Amino acid sequence: MTSPADVPHLTPNQINALVVLMVEARRLSNVELKELAGFTLTGKDNKKLVDLGLVDTDRTHRPFAHELTEQGWRVARQLHTAAPPKAGGSTTRSLFVVLSNLHRSLDRLRISHGDFFKPTEATAPTGGEPRREAPAPTAARPLSAVEVEALVRSTYRELATAPGAWVGLADVRDRLADTDRAALDAALRAMVGREDVRIIPVANTKSLTARDRAAAVRIGNEDNHALAIGSA
Question: In terms of pTM, does the model score above 0.85?
Answer without folding.
Answer: no
